[in-house]
Specification:
The complex is a heterodimer of chains A (251) and B (261). Helices cover 51% and strands 6% of the residues of chain A. Chain A is built from twelve helices and four strands. In chain A, helix 1 (12-23) packs antiparallel against helix 8 (186-195) and helix 1 (12-23) packs across helix 12 (223-229). Chain A is globular. Chain B is built from twelve helices and four strands; from the N terminus they run βαβαββαααααααααα. In chain B, helix 4 crosses helix 6. The radius of gyration of chain B is 18 Å and the shape is globular. Classes of the chains: A alpha+beta (251), B alpha+beta (261). Chains A and B meet through helix 3 and helix 4 of A and helix 3, helix 4, helix 6 and helix 7 of B.
Chain lengths: 251, 261
């Protein structure tokens, strides 16, 4: 079945999906779009509910046989199911639960924090015409806040704390192992995707975190990941941000 | 003693998800009821199982699992019984998409309304000092904020309005998805339906002007079909509060606009 992946620069959710695609050895048509300009909203599938209302915010879209898929971890699970390469999730159900729980915490706590800090440090430059097409009221509100430069100090501070907490968790998990779940998995891709750009934004969070820093280097050394990073058209893809998931509004 | 112990509150929202999945699979489990309104989930006994103090948690032998949606996937993969995830990878993606959308976008809005209407009033009559101490024992800062709002009625008007807007959008999306297929995210009953029922079982009562047989016939058809399943009946029979007894609204053959108070 033919696949088309609409993706941004290899950072955040676009990184996760591109890396899963290459790790699994899947052929797909790659179409680069300016996620940070709001270009996803001019795709013909932009108003489909699963794209327009994706909790992830501005992420890549994989179109397979006419169905447009969003949300990078679940696209990666799909690619893991259909591709020939080595598995990206453990075979043991408990280890799979741990992988999905890990990704859930990454999606729910770390990703909103990283996206906010990333957009604060490297504001996206949206096209007003494209923003007018956004189907989700709350995603448009996030774009407007970023466009107006409105960043609440308490949210920035809380986001830094959340990024630091994620790094602590990764550092602890990596004791005695190369990859977060033991074997290389989607958890490594998703965690790296959101945290790679935080090294310069929250340097204090990474201070003395030797295991995390070497895990990032190890990940960048994988052939599939090198191929992903070689797709970058900007000098530093980890400095390329678009609005991500919203910060949890209720406990 | 069963191999599985589930620590849960009512068959509702996160607690109800693994309860219903276990019952659909026919897995026997020891039910350990935690009274959320008595703050059982923040007491040392339970914190020794789940230090985050969130409900539900599951023990399978020596393994401990949290995060209700990931837990449901574990239940489906681990135990025999009817499969609650289809084989088609595209269906599996769609099921996960809907579960995340409900867990992270729609359910928090329902929950905010439910906590203002039900949870807050149910605990407000307790001793103020006891409530203060109960809040201080909550491990997660986000949950402390939530409980403070519920106990002291601190919900801002604009956040309630936003929750109500999201509930209306979510109802439209559910109705549209259910007009395309028999079940929410695939052509067979799946974890997405078990998840969605926990969110929406009382919808025609809680949102009568947005969901009824005339406005959302597909949602009502779907809710009644899930309620008719023996596992759902057995699951909701474990409920103790008036909140979950609202499920019996689905026994009415027709819930029309006239139902609006």
């Amino acid at each position: 079945m033919s696949m088309t992946l609409y993706h941004g620069e290899p950072n955040g959710p676009s990184f996760t999906v591109l890396a899963a695609l290459f790790e699994k050895g899947i052929q797909a048509e790659l179409v680069r779009i300016g996620l940070a300009e709001g270009a996803r909203h001019e795709l013909s599938c932009a108003q489909q509910a699963e794209v327009a209302m994706s909790v992830e915010g501005e992420g890549p879209v994989l179109v397979v046989g006419g169905e447009a898929m969003a949300d990078s971890v679940f696209i990666a699970c799909y690619l893991d199911d259909v591709g020939p390469g080595a598995p990206l999730r453990p075979a043991n159900p408990y280890a799979r639960w741990e992988t999905m729980s890990w990704c859930r915490q990454m999606i729910e706590r770390t990703a909103p924090a990283a996206a906010l800090l990333g957009c604060h440090a490297h504001p996206p430059k949206p096209s007003p015409a494209l923003l007018a097409k956004i189907g989700s009221v709350d995603l448009r509100a996030r774009w407007e806040m970023i466009g107006a430069g409105v960043f609440a100090e308490d949210k920035l501070a809380d986001s830094k704390a959340k990024v630091a907490a994620a790094v602590e968790k990764i550092e602890a998990k990596l004791a005695g192992r190369d990859w977060l779940m033991g074997e290389f998995s989607i958890a490594d891709l998703e965690s790296y995707a959101w945290l790679a750009g935080m090294v310069k934004v929250v340097p204090e969070g990474f201070a003395g975190k030797r295991l995390t820093v070497s895990w990032m280097e190890r990940l960048r050394g994988r052939p599939a990941v090198r191929k992903v990073l070689a797709l970058a058209r900007v000098a530093d893809p980890a400095a390329y941000w678009a609005p991500g998931p919203e910060i949890n509004r209720w406990g | 003693m069963s191999e599985v112990t589930l620590y849960h509150w009512e068959p509702n929202a996160n607690s109800g998800k693994p309860m219903l999945a276990l019952m659909e699979k026919g897995v026997p489990f020891d039910s350990h009821y935690l009274d959320l309104l008595n703050f059982d989930q923040h007491k040392p006994d339970y914190l020794s199982i789940n230090p985050q103090g969130t409900i539900p948690a599951m023990k399978h032998g020596n393994l401990v699992l949290t995060e209700s949606t990931a837990m449901m996937e574990y239940v489906d993969e681990t135990f025999p019984g009817p499969k609650l995830m289809p084989d088609d990878p595209l269906d599996r993606w769609r099921i996960r998409w809907w579960m995340k959308f409900m867990d992270q976008w729609l359910a928090p809005s329902f929950s905010m309304i439910g906590w203002k209407v039900f949870v807050g009033p149910a605990v407000q009559s307790k001793d103020p000092e006891e409530l203060k101490a109960a809040i201080e024992r909550i491990p997660l800062p986000e949950r402390r904020v939530a409980w403070r709002k519920a106990i002291y009625g601190l919900f801002a008007e604009d956040e309630m309005k936003e929750s109500q807007r999201r509930v209306a959008v979510g109802i439209r999306m559910l109705e549209e998805a259910l007009s395309k297929r028999a079940w929410l995210a695939s052509n067979q009953y799946s974890l997405a339906d078990a998840n969605g029922f926990n969110l929406a079982y009382a919808l025609p009562l809680s949102q009568p002007s947005l969901s009824n047989d005339e406005l959302t016939p597909n949602i009502l058809r779907w809710l009644r079909a899930i309620y008719a399943r023996p596992a759902t009946k057995a699951c909701w029979a474990l409920g103790r509060t008036s909140m979950v007894k609202r499920v019996t609204i689905l026994e009415q053959p027709h819930i029309g606009r006239e139902h609006v108070a």
